[in-house]
Every structure is written in structure tokens, then in C-alpha cells.
Amino acid sequence: MGRATLVALLLCLFAKALVVKAEDPYLFFEWNVTYGTIAPLGVPQQGILINGQFPGPRINCTSNNNIVVNVFNQLDEPFLFTWVGVQQRKNSWQDGTLGTMCPILPGKNFTYHFQVKDQIGSYFYFPATGLQRAAGGIGALNVHSRDLIPVPFDRPTDEYNVLVGDWYNKGHKTLKNILDTGRSIGRPDGIQINGRSAKVGDNIEPLFTMEPGKTYRYRVCNVGLKTSINFRIQGHTLKLVEIEGSHTIQNIYDSLDVHVGQCLSVLATANQEPKDYYFVASSRFTKMPLFSVGIIRYTNQKGPASPILPMAPPENLEGIAWSINQFRSFRWNLTASAARPNPQGSYHYGQINITRTLKLVNSATQVGGKLRYAINGVSHIDPSTPLKLAEYFGVPDKVFQYNLVKDDALATNNLVTTIAPSVVNATFRNFVEIIFENHEKTIQTWNLDGYSFFAVAIEPGTWSPEKRKNYNLLDAISRHNIQVYPGSWAAIMTTLDNAGMWNLRSDMWERVYLGQQLYFSVLSPARSLRDEYNLPDNQPLCGIVEKLPLPAPYTA
Ligand SMILES: *[C@@H]1O[C@H](CO)[C@@H](O)[C@H](O)[C@H]1NC(C)=O
Ligand SMILES: *[C@@H]1O[C@H](CO)[C@@H](O)[C@H](O)[C@H]1NC(C)=O
Ligand SMILES: *[C@@H]1O[C@H](CO)[C@@H](O)[C@H](O)[C@H]1NC(C)=O
Ligand SMILES: *[C@@H]1O[C@H](CO)[C@@H](O)[C@H](O)[C@H]1NC(C)=O
Ligand SMILES: *[C@@H]1O[C@H](CO)[C@@H](O)[C@H](O)[C@H]1NC(C)=O
Ligand SMILES: *[C@@H]1O[C@H](CO)[C@@H](O)[C@H](O)[C@H]1NC(C)=O
How far does residue 60's CA lie from ligand 2's centre (Å)? Predict the structure, then answer.
């Protein structure tokens, strides 16, 4: 990492020294992806390392920076990184999902090039291929506000990234093999926090340190495979300041739920007796409770952490009600700036007419004796030609059929599962409402690439149009991930103004791998560089487009 950081630093200084009306700054990274032994739960296993590290290097950048990451795949399998929450404006080419890109083959390298355009916030990256997310290759991605943009809280003394998630002691190939043979990967073995786990009383090195009197920002992401997590810091309250790129009303919490794929930032002040305190992460809504702790140490510490841990929130139905209430307390700070100087609330999403409503229902079924997951009865598979490339080369009908998923779940029999590449044709700039209805007994989380959306409602029961009167049309959080509790629904709204091929997926990795995902094809009728970049020169081609002539590039 040293060299990459140095290059970035030099370039930064260079850019600052020149500042004419220079292009947005560049950050360069060179990443070697290899196998190596890790032991997040104390059991040594094969992990995926980036430049020898797990978790991988943190990308620390500022709005509008150009990020260039040259990835060398030294594994024995195809590989791709996806950049959660990075909106990839006009640039689904770099999204790193199998519907948009050919994977990087073993022994090959590929250079991602993207811009964190007009966004801020706490995000992460992970391997989108196979079950590799279960083995590592995960790291934090922080996007800071530009110097001129006011941030609605004092600059913290330091920032800590916390990547927390459930963990399996089985390797990713074993897990993939279990799914390939039609079975479930079952329950995770534990919870890891930044690659480690511990229980109360273990003699462990601190995860973080705090100076007395100082305030720190903790950016917490759930990078696990299926388990919602609650976290808390013994003896300290948490002031919520940001969720996936939105500045929130700064409420104070004793503990927060963070569901799979979600990130949020809290401020914690070292205003207690100087000693060690436990950071606690525990599972939510699971039959077998799991938890792990880490140490936060005061720099003038005088003693060990108390063995008495802060209370976990309730479980079961009461716990779901607790968690829904907490979701409802998350509000957009309408007067704070986001990536741009104009206040967040100047975008009046509640006054835009809905042009399309999609109601999506998840299901689990056996097809030919094998477990599959679906959306409105369609279980996605990745074809060997990425969907985006098939469309760009003008041969979509050789690879997939549009609109197997119908807008209204009622129009489909959710039990009959079609296994096929799933692409929904969307109209550029439509303002859409998506309802996720969960009839299953497990919690779901959903991630949309390419956009952030307003998370306007979560309620128990089933959705109907009258429920719209319960939407938060004023100050809902704009984000990219939402949870849907068992027997509940959630509603989101967004403008499909980013042309490209965008993955809407469950963030439960077993479900994604076995089909609970689809792609939105959002084509700009103009086929213009104003709306979408051209296929990058370095993009590897595969499948049926490999030998086809390159289409004429988009022009101005
Ligand atoms: C990546 O590995 C190559 C050799 O395999 C080495 O020369 C290079 O320095 C490594 N890069 C980093 C950033 O570790
Ligand atoms: C991350 O970036 C921000 C903004 O550029 C900077 O203030 C901060 O010092 C950086 N942190 C690290 C650890 O490099
Ligand atoms: C692979 O890495 C080399 C430099 O190490 C670079 O010149 C080349 O562009 C990279 N290939 C791709 C496809 O990005
Ligand atoms: C919202 O942001 C404004 C502007 O930065 C700030 O002054 C205010 O304290 C924030 N309000 C809350 C409730 O967090
Ligand atoms: C929304 O729809 C209503 C009723 O159809 C119409 O009167 C209004 O002008 C529309 N608003 C916008 C902003 O298009
Ligand atoms: C997709 O939608 C656009 C506009 O909404 C339409 O022109 C086009 O024919 C549709 N394509 C398919 C394959 O449905």
C-alpha cells in the first residue's frame, strides 16, 4: 500500500500546487488479490487478501475524486470487485457485477476507473463473484465532503472503520459447493469485527484508542452474509450522523441495528472514566444468538473493561417492533449539505408523481430438488455474456429475455420459479416506487446499484396503495440498502436518471448466489456521452460478444 499511497499523495500535492481549473484529483491503487491464511474466529482457514491484508486497504477519498484501482487476480478463480454505494454515474461498466462486466481471469489484471461523483458517505467494497465474499477481499470506502462544503458536526479527532459481519469457518469454495448441490449454507459460526473476534475476558489488543475528552467517528458497515447485527459501545452513547451518504438528524442511541450491506456513522466521545470499554456486536433475529466484542482503549487507561455488557435490544416480535421504530427515527437533516452546497431537502422527492410501481416478492423454493431463491417467481442466473455487453453489442435476445419479472407480484405465481437471466426494462428518468414484500420468516435486505433511493416506509403486513398515506414524503433517508422484516413490506422511491445496467439484489449472499436478484436496464434514448460513457478500452470481452465487431461509440 505504501507505494500507492505515496503516488496518490504526490499526485494530490501536484494537483494542489497547480490548481488552475484542473481535472478532479486522481487516487491510484495497485492491489494484488491472493489467498492467505486468516482466522477471524480463531480457526485458521484460506482467506482472500488484498496486498496481504484482511480486511483490505481502506479507500479514503473526497467527493468527485477519480479512483483508479489496478487489480491483479492471483487466485485460481475468476474475480470482480464491486463498490457498494458508489453510484457510478454514467458508468455501469465499472460496477463490478457479473451482469455488467466479464470477470478478471486468474493471472490477469484489470484497472477499474471510476469517479465518486457528487456523493459522500461510508461504503465498502467486496468480491461480487461466487461466494468469495465469505473469504475476505472486503474493505472500507470513505468519501469525504470537499473542503468548501460544510459538514453538520465538528471534525472528529479521528475516524475508525468497523467492518462487522457474520462469519463461516468453512471456506468459500466449500460454501459454494454446498449451494451448487442445492443445499443451504446454514447458520454462521460467529461474528467478526475487522477480521477478529473475542469474548468477554479474552486478553486482546484494542481495536481502537480514544483520547480523553475527544470525539471519534465510527463508520460501521455490516459486511456479513446473512445476519443483521446490533452494535453498542459499553458506557457510551452513539450520536448518529450519517447513513449511506445522507447526513441524518443527530439522534442519540444506546445501540443501533445495522443490517447486511448497510453502513452508518456515529460519533462517540471519550467522556467516561479512563479504562477499556467493549465494542459489542450481536446477531439479530437468529435462532442461535452470536456475538463478539472488541476493546476500545482510553489512551490514559487505568483498567480493564467491565465484564457487564450493555443490554441487547429485545428479540422476536418485540425486537422487530423496536427495530422498525428505530428505522422510523432515522431522518434526513433537510438543512445540512450533502456532496453539494445546496441543502439535502431542496430535492422535494415527495412532490414527484410516481410513473411506475413495482411490487417485488421474494421466495425460496425447491426446483428439481435444489434450493433456489426468486423475485416474483424468477430466479436469476448470470449468463456467460454479461447482460450489459449483450445489450451494447446489439444482441440482447441471444442472451436474455426482457421483463420476465412482472411489475406486480400478483401477476405471477411466486411458487413457479423460472430460472433465467432477469432483466427489467426501465425508462430513463422515470420516478419509480418499489415495494418489497417479504412473506418469509427471515429478514431480507435489498441493495440497488447505480442510485440512492428514499427509504419511505417499512411496515408489518402486506402493502396496498392506501399505505402510501403512511409514507415519509418529507425527510426519509436517501440510501442504497433497505431491510424488510419477516411478514413485512418496505417502500422506496428513486429517479432512474443514471443510464446503465444496474443490479437490484438481496444482500443475503446465499440468496443472491441462488437467484434473488435482477438487473434494471436503463437506456438513454439519446445514446449520447452526456448520458453514458463508452465501453472502456481495457474492458475484457467474453461470451458471444468476444468476436463481434465493436459497436460505434457514443458521440457527444
Ligand atoms: C504485487 O505483486 C507483485 C509480484 O507478484 C509485486 O511485484 C508488486 O510489488 C505487488 N504490488 C503490491 C502493491 O503489493
Ligand atoms: C482521509 O481523507 C480526509 C479528507 O481528504 C482527510 O482529512 C483524512 O486525514 C484522511 N484520513 C486518512 C487516514 O488518510
Ligand atoms: C495491467 O497492469 C498493467 C501495469 O502493471 C497496465 O499497464 C495494464 O493496463 C493493466 N491491464 C488492464 C486491463 O487494466
Ligand atoms: C442539521 O444540519 C444543520 C446544518 O449543518 C445543523 O446546524 C443542525 O444542527 C443539524 N440538525 C440536527 C437536528 O442534527
Ligand atoms: C402530478 O399529477 C397530477 C394529477 O395527475 C397533476 O395535476 C400534476 O401536475 C402532476 N405533477 C407534476 C409535477 O407533474
Ligand atoms: C424498453 O423500454 C423502451 C421505452 O420504455 C422501449 O422503447 C423498448 O422497446 C423496450 N424494450 C423492450 C425489449 O421491452
Answer: 6
455-506, pLDDT tens digit by residue?
A: 999 999 999 999 999 999 999 999 999 999 999 999 999 999 999 999 999 9
Q: Return the pLDDT at 412.
A: 65
pLDDT, tens digit (0-9, with 9 covering 90-100), for 75-92: 999 999 999 999 999 999
Query: What's the CA-to-centroid distance between 111 and ligand 3, angstroms?
Result: 6
Q: pLDDT exceeding 90 applies to what percent of the chain?
A: 92
The answer to whether the CB of 70 is under 6 A from ligand 3 is yes
- What pLDDT shows up at residue 16? 43
Q: Which residue is closest in CA terms to ligand 2's atom 12?
A: 60
**Domain assignment of residue 151, yes or no:** no
Same domain, 65 and 176: no
What would the grid cell of residue 337 be?
A: 449539505
Mean pLDDT computed over 2-26: 54
Q: Does residue 157 have its Cβ closer than 6 Å to ligand 2?
A: no
Question: Which ligand sits nearest to residue 333's alpha carbon?
Answer: 4
pLDDT at position 302 is 84
Read off the pLDDT of each residue in 520-525 and give the average, rounded to a whole number. Answer: 95
Please give the Cα distance from 522 to 499 (Å, whole number).
5
| Cell of residue 390, nine digits | 449483450
89 found inside a domain: yes
- Would the CB of 62 count as within 6 Å of ligand 2? yes
* 434 contacts 490 by C-beta, under 8 angstroms: no
Domain that holds residue 232: 158-328
Boundary residue ending a domain (304, 328, 352)? 328
* Predicted local confidence at residue 12, as pLDDT: 46
How many structural domains does the chain have?
A: 3
Tell me the C-alpha distance between 186 and 148, whole Å. Answer: 49
Which residue is listed with cell 422510523? 328
Residue 10 pLDDT > 50: no
Q: Is the CB of 110 under 6 A from ligand 3?
A: yes
* Among 69, 70, 102, residue to substitute to test ligand 3 (most atoms within 8 Å of Cβ): 70
Residues 234 and 352 reside in one and the same domain? no
Is 16 part of a structural domain of the chain?
Answer: yes
The pLDDT of 253-264, averaged and rounded, is: 98
Same domain, 95 and 179: no
Question: Which among 80, 112, 144 is the end of a domain?
Answer: 144
The response to whether residue 357 sits with its C-beta less than 6 Å from ligand 3 reads: no
My answer on whether 403 and 488 are in the same domain is: yes
On whether both 177 and 294 belong to a single domain, the answer is yes
Instruction: Of 196, 206, 163, give the one whose Cα is nearest residue 56.
Output: 163
Cell numbers that stand for 184 in this block: 443451504
What residues are paired with 433 via a beta bridge? Answer: 357, 493
Q: Which ligand is nearest to the CA of 251?
A: 4
pLDDT at 301: 82
130 & 165 share domain: no
Indicate the helix (H) or strand (E) that contains 6: helix 2-18
Q: Are residues 455 and 516 in the same domain?
A: yes
237 and 173 co-located in one domain: yes
Q: What span, in angstroms and rounded, lies between the C-alpha atoms of 241 and 127?
A: 28
CATH of the domain at 107: 2.60.40.420
